[in-house]
Amino acid sequence: MNEYFEQQRTFFLRHETKSYAFRKQLLLTLKTTIEQHEEEIKVALRKDLNKHPTESYSTEIGVVLYSLNHALKNLKRWMQPQKVKTPFFNLFSKSYLYQEPKGTVLIIGPYNYPFHLVIEPLIGALAAGNTVILKPSEFTTHTEKVIEKMFQQNFDPAVVKVLCGGKKTTEKLLNLPFDHIFFTGSTRVGGIVYEAAAKRLIPVTLELGGKSPAIVDGTAKLEIAAKRIAFGKMLNAGQTCVAPDYVYVESSVKDTFEEYLIKAFKSMYENDKQQLASIVNQKHFDRLIGLIDKEKIVYGGKTQAEKKHISPTVLSDISWDDAIMQAEIFGPLLPIITFSNIDEVIDTLQKKDKPLATYVFSENKVTKARILNELSFGNGAINDTIMQVASPYLPFGGVGKSGLGAYHGKTSFDTFSHYKSYIKKTTLFDFNPAYPPYQNQEKFIKKLLK
Ligand code: NAD
Q: Of 5, 201, 361, 435, which residue is most buried, by most CB within 10 angstroms?
């Protein structure tokens, strides 16, 4: 492991990754490699998570190809030194920001989008000129193997190296002096990564999880809200970091909303079970079954142990004390909890951990403005779920316990960069009122610093 790191660091210090031509070629190679392996990736995702090939394309393959195209279009501009304003006291100087790659970086991925969530940060890391060690999730073995093969065949390991393995592999990697660690996964393991990085003062990005609410008030267009929440919840069978974890609905519209929700689940999933992804492993399947309070099921609750399938399940009349409300669900269970007014929503949610996402369904301007202004969350949507994630123009990340730092588009490039700031000064003459000996210049300095 150490030898891969040393090889990458040696290569990095040759400075080849700093040129535009080198970075562009890497991104182009990544693009053709993904295109050539599209079918294999889809097959692997079907085996690992029973993802429908269309869902695999839209949420794992297509979305990273879009990001790659965006990076290719903008790379030259992103790399240009930026001229910025110069304060008057820096007389006869110009000020600049000069992008440099951080160096050799580590990317650790989770199981739920096992392809997307290592390739998306990789795009930013390569665009910024780093060498990269990738550690995909060990729980999605077929996808892990395809990723390993893709890079073995098409990339110099001195630039991108895939290392497969679980906790032990990651622990060893966390002992190496990387220049940045980009971690996507649970809040618990995020803490372990943060602690290991702190020992060496390694900068980190932590993309974590949490309980993301979908708030539905009495003015919301309920049929649309129900459909968009059902879609966001059931993508990858609820194993999505930004899935609406639960619905927080105004009590006056709860019954109507539930009817629409059930109608939406029926129309999307009831006729074709192949649409539904499965739960990644037995441990998570058992954990989810344990969260279902049978007396509160108003829809679904069907399970197939051999396929690790759980049908979309709506649980009504849930209270904050129920087991399902104690941690991120990460599965196809949708608890419904009610409120009576917006003050109650703000008061309750602002006391909880800051979630990765928050969704609000409302036609009331004041409600929407208050949720944006008074609740803290990583990212979100008004009258939609999930769709904010795919935009390269929106930085993506959590806040507080849901994460640290952000990426996507230019933000990814910035995350894997250091910006050297410097000034360039004339040598035609030498004038600086701050030079000693200190005589009568204070008045003049005061004027300059106003
Ligand atoms: P996880 O934290 O269990 O594992 C993530 C990675 O950490 C894996 O590669 C794993 O090998 C490694 N790992 C596990 N235990 C470790 C340990 N003790 N020491 C060092 N490394 C260790 O996460 P997961 O179960 O694969 O993914 C689900 C979680 O990820 C959910 O909480 C979800 O919300 C979150 N997530 C967040 C985002 C985001 O973008 N914010 C995206 C997807 C998933």
A: 361
Q: Residue written as tokens 């995020």?
A: 190
Whether residues 197 and 234 share a domain: the answer is: no
Token pair of 397, please? 């990340």
Q: How many angstroms does the Cα of residue 208 sit away from the middle of ligand 1?
A: 8
The H helix count followed by the E strand count for the chain is: 16, 18
Q: Torsion angle, CA of 414/37/56/133, rounded to 10 degrees?
A: -40
**Catalytic amino acids?**
207, 241
pLDDT-flagged residues of the chain (< 50) = none
Look at phi and psi of residue 22 and say left if phi exceeds 0, alpha if psi is from -120 to 50, else beta.
alpha
Residue type, 134: L
Are residues 276 and 360 located together in one domain of the fold?
yes
Residues 354 and 400 sit within 8 Å (Cβ to Cβ):
yes
Structure tokens at 243: 């899935």
Ligand 1 pocket at CB < 6 A? 108-112, 117, 135, 137-138, 166-167, 170-171, 184-186, 189, 192, 207-209, 241, 328, 330, 356, 398, 403
**Interval 397-421: pLDDT, tens:** 999 999 999 999 999 999 999 999 9
* Bond before 437 cis per omega within 30 degrees: yes
Q: pLDDT per residue over 83-132, tens digit each? A: 999 998 888 999 999 999 999 999 999 999 999 999 999 999 999 999 99
**What is the per-residue pLDDT across 333-352, written as a single tens digit (0 to 9) for each?**
999 999 999 999 999 999 99
Q: How far is CA 88 from CA 25, 433, 450, in A?
A: 42, 12, 10
Same domain for 129 and 55, yes or no, is yes
The number of CA neighbours under 13 Å toward the Cβ of 104 is: 24
Q: What confidence score (pLDDT) does residue 447 get? A: 87
Between the CA of 184 and the centroid of ligand 1 the distance, in Å, is: 6
Torsion of Cα atoms, 211 then 215 then 221 then 223, to 10°: 40
> Which of 185, 228, 233, 237 has its CA nearest to residue 51?
237
The number of residues in the chain equals 450
335 close to 319: Cβ distance less than 8 angstroms: no
Q: State the residue range of the domain holding 380.
A: 213-390
Same domain, 127 and 190: yes
Which residue's CA lies nearest to atom 16 of ligand 1? 167
- Phi and psi of 83, rounded to 5°? -85, 135
Q: What angle do CA 238, 239, 245 make, to 5 degrees?
A: 50
Question: Which ligand 1 atom sits closest to the C-alpha of 136?
Answer: 9
